[in-house]
Automatic annotation (TrEMBL):
It is found in: Cell membrane. Belongs to the binding-protein-dependent transport system permease family. FecCD subfamily. It is a multi-pass membrane protein. Keywords: Cell membrane, Membrane, Transmembrane, Transmembrane helix, Transport. This is Iron complex transport system permease protein. GO terms for cellular component: plasma membrane. InterPro entries: ABC_BtuC-like, ABC_transptr_permease_BtuC. The chain crosses the membrane at residues 21-40, 78-96, 108-126, 132-153, 160-182, 202-223, 251-278, 320-339. The lineage of its organism: Bacteria, Bacillati, Actinomycetota, Actinomycetes, Micromonosporales. It comes from the Bacteria. Its main location: membrane. One of its GO terms (biological process) is siderophore-iron import into cell. The keyword Mitochondrion does not apply. One of its GO terms (molecular function) is transmembrane transporter activity.
Length: 346
């Protein structure tokens, strides 16, 4: 974690971990908030279930009817919102740290758009479905990341150039995605358009496993190397003087963050603005210029879980895609961010 304020150091087994108290408290509060909203989502729906019955079912002591609703209908969706939100928040924190730019999130540098292109190719050209679409999204995200890196690389990697190149590639892929939908059959085009909105409705345990593997494998990698982000933000020369392996740390962080974004998009589609908004919102809560990866992941989980509750209840009788909610809130956030930047620079 990277934050100002008091710190505590935990030592044991030859290892030491330095924790920033404010970031730790903020991350814990956000994680609890996300879990609380997740519990509410488990209790509400077409059939409301008391909290006690949900907890009894989760403990393995529920009746058959409650178990079916909880385990088959609601728990996969709730777990996906938590995991996808955490993956996007952590990925956004890494990319914003590497690019030193609040707009340097997977949304803006084109990674989620690349994942969408891969998924659309599978859906509309190869006639694939299910896990094949998820695999296409992952491959599309990875290829997009490699393409942006190669196009932006010139005598080293400049963060500003990476962001600009990502925006350009994103625009090109958006056009390609529109063309793919245009040339598809009506039913295919409708299904593809719904996928592009970003939704957790109808997702099952396959998607849970997919994004859980990405989070369990890659988030610890990001946390381990994330301690170098504050040094990298000061410049390569200063980071080298402090013993940071600049090239390796940057490559590992970027690869892991791309993997988190790819796993999240493969499970739920391109959810907009969570990766962009979660890190700075967590930083404001922790009263720090950079809140760190865990608080950002917790904020992402809280935002997406709350967004999914709003998606289910904003319009009575309609379960709208959660991507619509995050896009609406994210648009307002981006407007505020740009307005604040304008005031700051006079």
């Amino acid at each position: 974690m990277s934050a100002h304020g008091p710190k505590i150091v935990l030592r044991g087994g030859g290892l030491s971990v330095r924790l920033h108290v404010r970031a730790l408290v903020a991350g814990a509060a956000l994680a609890l908030a996300a879990l609380a909203v997740a519990l509410v989502n488990l209790t509400s729906g077409d059939f409301d279930i008391p909290v006690a019955d949900v907890l009894r079912s989760l403990a393995g002591r529920g009746d058959a009817g409650t178990d079916f609703i909880v385990y088959e209908l609601r728990l996969p969706r709730v777990l996906i919102t938590l995991l996808v939100g955490a993956a996007l928040g952590g990925s956004g924190s890494v990319f914003q740290g590497l690019t030193r730019n609040p707009l340097g999130s997977p949304d803006f540098v084109g990674l989620t758009v690349g994942a969408a292109t891969g998924a659309l190719v599978v859906m509309l050209i190869l006639d694939g479905g299910g896990i094949q679409v998820a695999a296409g999204a992952i491959i599309g995200c990875l290829l997009c990341a490699v393409a942006i890196y190669l196009l932006a690389f010139r005598r080293g990697m400049q963060p500003f150039r990476l962001v600009l190149m990502g925006i350009g590639v994103s625009a090109l892929l958006e056009a390609a995605n529109s063309y793919l939908i245009y040339r598809g059959r009506l039913d295919e085009a409708l299904a593809a358009q719904v996928w592009l909105l970003g939704s957790v409705n109808g997702r099952g345990w396959t998607e849970v496993v997919l994004v859980a593997v990405a989070v369990i494998v890659l988030l610890p990698v990001v946390l381990h190397h994330g301690r170098h982000l504050s040094m990298l933000a000061l410049g390569d020369e200063i980071a080298v003087l402090h013993g940071v392996p600049v090239g390796r740390s940057r490559a590992v962080l970027a690869f892991a963050a791309v993997g988190l974004s790819a796993g999240a998009t493969a499970a739920a589609g391109p959810i907009a603005f969570v990766a962009l908004a979660a890190p700075p919102l967590a930083a404001r809560l922790a009263r720090s210029p950079h809140a760190g990866i865990l608080p950002s992941a917790a904020m992402g989980a809280a935002l997406l879980t709350a967004g999914d509750w709003a998606a289910q209840h904003a319009l009575p009788g309609h379960d709208i895609p959660v991507g619509v909610i995050t896009a609406a809130l994210g648009g307002a956030y981006l407007t505020w961010l740009l307005f604040r930047e304008r005031r700051t620079r006079g």
